[in-house]
């Protein structure tokens, strides 16, 4: 068979996998947005069936055949086909040797674990969850032992969500954050300065909040002709190719800023997905490259853009036309101070922009221990509380508000947390690059977000999964993840918010 | 291979087909309820891919292998497996010999035809659609020529939607209707009596209409835990197995009775789907048996139950608690008269319960001509208008409100219309049977719909596709479709509504 024919067949094979992925995305969205409860079992069965069809195709002999031929002739492949090869090979290597029976047992364990975790959290009883957590770590290690290569298990997990990420990179990254952000936070809390946050809590009609969502989504550049906004308990973004990218939010009458920012956050994810170039539309490259880079876009729109002073200079008056009388005296500065209040919190999902990365840091440190040092899981509450005190100056009154707060571990998601902090750091890094070329503040103050999105599209969005994260980031300014940009960004911003000297 | 093993593999094979059908139903519902326009192409591609996967499985060598073995040992199969064999064999025989290329071309023609038809209707230009209609009939005949057996092409089409239905059955059925309903309609129109329909047109808030929908849906027995109500331009019911049966409606502020009855109608379809017995849940038998019997259930709930006087006796006061001041003087009798106004209409979808079957009858007669007599399609407007005058006493002022009004032919749906009239007739027939066992009016007047649904479930819903329509209907009272029940029902009902002597 000629190389050309092999490439054609390979692409048509991937096309089928990609269509099934798109179908699964639609089913997932349906399941998450009000599908009848009574059909949960049959729905799970159908989704499991499609997932296993996709899995079979990813590790089939046919796939191996393509990968073997293309692997030998990589130098003859164009950039897009080479990327398809790379992405498929990566999945093949991660999955092909894993015993299907073990994957099935791990799935079962995760289903069981989520229920046990929820009960343990509700009953504030970590010991009820501990054996299960131990089993999750053990089975995860067992699964990883079948992988190609001899990387450290936790490095393998980091790589699953962020290709190329290692403990070495994380240690340096979080080391810098620890050295800078912990003292910065202390300076802010010890300064005793408090922002006026009186704007919080003035009720806004849900119908009005829905209008605000559409307004702000369109302003930041989310294309509603290729997307839609629905309502769910937990906001998310889900796509079936760049022309069908959906977001959800949750409205609280007394906290309109909650949905306001969740919309902008999800729009960041969605804009990434919607702006891929034509050559890769509806192929397996038509998706964001990694969890960290995805989060960099949601954080960019939410925080870098949406929580900036110029943004509030731009949006304040227009937003007030949607808001009730209680907001009539609100100024850009009042909003800016309100949405940037620094207040160490026990709970990650309520954390402000400054302290968020500290929550992630302690989770990274604990996960690393779980996979490296053979830590006794029954010690985790103590370890958790010590780190909480050290980094945030708080001690949880119970484990429900401590080590038991997140769903991730029970869902088998280990090695995922770091991508949240990477996302914020990349967002600040991209802002710094952008500033070399344009007056970002002036553009935001004019509401000219399209120029900003065009920059992100050129360097990030358009490429989908064509490059590895390292290649993609490196292409922009010749360097890799660098925590310094993030630290400088946070230091400057929050020194300004709290009127501190930026220097020390 | 033992018979037992064959049956197990056959069932597992069907299970996959059925899961793909369920997936497709969910995708269809998603596509019809607000999925992004911009993704129409990629969505159609994914749905086409799944459809062709299902098609391949239905006519595969593997399927043929099962059918051959099971066909020889039918006497050893239990009722459910035998039904699975029968249903699969029926599909296989209809599809296996059809050239895939021809199916593809027919699909393309249908896509094109819907656009041409819509333009022709908008421009009131039948001649623009005529060549396309001619081609649709010709290609349909061509497709049918590959089928097993030597039945008449139009009989094959009738059988597609209603197993066992033939022109012979239809001729007798419509012949009786023509002889009875046309004179009955003339008596009503010539009597000059007019119902007071002043209740129409008093606006009802859409939010209130949504509440009414949920109220009435639950009252008639639609299980919202295994279903949901959304809003679309054209109401429909769509299911992915008995535990996930969804309905939609459309609200008009000035016509709350429109959504009121569309909800009851779709609930009829949905209740049929939701009430199948456990043995066939989530199998290929977990669906209504035919278009006509499905319509019998929607018409039963909508008309037999919902437009009866006892129903209004029951619901009137409670409904008024949802309605504005303008309805405060409304009585059961006023509602009953309003919703049973007989008024010959040019447009089928606006027809009342009495004249509806006449619209269907003329479409049947014309379809039969198209497939039998080699009628010149350019003559259809004249033929249409003559029949319209003969049966309904009206002449369309243009073809847009005449022969061009329905989407069906452009969508390739030929042989489908008769099932609408069959549905209404079966509904009346079932009512007559039911009356032999219980005081239906008294039950309705008490709102005790559960007893009525239980009867329908016992005789119809629970069996899904286990029996053929003939077998299912025959099991109830030992007879087949009989137009007399329907004629008697319409004659009695509308004689009462218009105060005529029932006898002549």
Give Rg of chain A in angstroms: 23 Å
Helix and strand run of chain A: HHHHHHHHHEEEHHHHHHHHHHH
The pLDDT mean of chain A sits at 96
Which structural class do the helices and strands of chain A define?
A: mainly alpha
Largest sheet of chain A: 3 strands, mixed
Any idea what the shape of chain A is? globular
Largest interface by Cβ-Cβ < 8 Å? A-B, 34 and 34 residues
> What strand order characterises the main sheet of chain A?
1-3-2
Write down how many β-strands of chain A occur, each being a DSSP E stretch of 2 or more residues: 3
β-sheet strand percentage of chain A? under 5%
Helix content of chain A: 55-70%
**Which regions of chain A have little confidence, pLDDT < 50, spanning 5+ residues?**
none
N-to-C span of chain A:
66 Å
- Distinct helical segment count of chain A: 20
Query: How would you describe the oligomerization state of the chains in this entry?
Result: homodimer
Any overview of this molecule?
2 copies of one chain form a homodimer. The first copy, chain A, has 504 residues and is an all-alpha fold. The longest helix of chain A has 30 residues, at 3-32. The first copy, chain A, is globular, with a radius of gyration of 23 Å. In chain A, 62% of the residues lie in helices and 3% in strands. In chain A, strand 2 and strand 3 form a beta hairpin. In chain A, helix 5 (100-122) runs antiparallel to helix 6, helix 9 (206-220) packs parallel to helix 10 (256-274) and helix 16 packs across helix 20 (483-497). Chain A has helices at residues 3-32, 40-58, 61-72, 79-95, 100-122, 126-144, 153-161, 167-191, 206-220, 256-274, 291-305, 309-320, 332-338, 356-372, 380-392, 418-435, 440-446, 449-459, 469-477, 483-497, and strands at 227-231, 237-239, 245-249. The termini of chain A are far apart. A 3-stranded mixed sheet of chain A has the order 1-3-2, with helices on both faces. Chains A and B meet through helix 1 and helix 2 of A and helix 1 and helix 2 of B.
């Amino acid at each position: 068979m000629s190389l050309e024919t092999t490439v054609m067949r390979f692409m048509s094979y991937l096309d089928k996998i990609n269509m099934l992925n798109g179908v699964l995305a639609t089913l997932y969205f349906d399941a998450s947005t009000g599908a009848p409860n009574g059909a949960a079992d049959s729905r799970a069965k159908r989704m499991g069936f499609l997932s296993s069809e996709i899995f079979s195709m990813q590790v089939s002999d046919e796939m191996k055949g393509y990968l073997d031929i293309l692997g030998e002739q990589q130098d003859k492949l164009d950039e897009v086909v080479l990327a398809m090869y790379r992405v498929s090979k990566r999945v093949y290597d991660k999955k092909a040797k894993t015993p299907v029976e073990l994957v099935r047992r791990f799935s079962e364990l995760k289903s069981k674990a989520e229920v046990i975790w929820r009960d343990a959290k509700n009953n504030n009883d970590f010991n009820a969850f501990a054996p299960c957590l131990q089993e999750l770590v053990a089975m995860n290690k067992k699964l990883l032992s079948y992988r190609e290569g001899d990387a450290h298990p936790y490095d393998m997990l980091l790589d699953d969500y962020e290709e190329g990420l290692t403990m070495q990179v994380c240690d340096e990254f979080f080391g810098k954050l620890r050295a800078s952000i912990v003292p910065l936070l202390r300076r802010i809390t010890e300064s005793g300065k408090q922002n006026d946050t009186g704007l919080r809590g003035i009720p806004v009609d849900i119908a009005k909040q829905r209008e605000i969502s559409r307004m702000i989504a369109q302003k930041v550049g989310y294309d509603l002709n290729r997307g839609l906004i629905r309502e769910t308990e937990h906001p998310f973004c889900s796509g079936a190719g760049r022309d069908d990218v959906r977001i959800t939010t949750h409205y609280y009458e007394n906290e309109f800023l909650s949905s306001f920012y969740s919309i902008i956050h999800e729009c960041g994810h969605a804009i990434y997905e919607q702006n891929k170039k034509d050559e890769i539309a509806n192929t397996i490259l038509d998706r964001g490259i990694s969890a960290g880079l995805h989060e960099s876009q949601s954080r960019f729109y939410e925080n870098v853009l949406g929580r900036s002073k110029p943004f509030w200079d731009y949006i304040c008056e227009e937003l007030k036309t949607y808001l009730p009388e209680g907001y009539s005296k609100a100024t850009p500065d009042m909003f800016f101070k309100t949405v940037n209040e620094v207040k160490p919190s026990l709970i990650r999902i309520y954390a402000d922009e400054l302290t968020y990365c500290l929550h992630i840091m302690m989770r990274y440190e604990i996960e690393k221990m779980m996979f490296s040092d053979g830590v006794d899981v029954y010690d985790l509450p103590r370890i958790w509380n010590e780190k909480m005190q050290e980094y945030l100056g708080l001690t949880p009154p119970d484990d429900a508000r401590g080590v038991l707060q997140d769903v991730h571990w029970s869902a088998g998601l280990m090695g995922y947390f770091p991508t949240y902090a990477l996302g914020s750091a990349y967002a600040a890094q991209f802002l710094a690059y952008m500033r070399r070329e344009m007056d970002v503040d002036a553009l935001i103050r004019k509401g000219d977000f399209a120029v900003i999105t065009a920059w992100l599209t050129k360097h990030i969005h358009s490429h989908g999964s064509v490059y590895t994260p390292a290649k993609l980031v490196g292409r922009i300014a010749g360097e890799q993840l660098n925590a310094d940009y993030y630290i400088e960004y946070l230091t400057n911003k929050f020194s300004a918010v709290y009127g501190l000297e930026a220097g020390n």
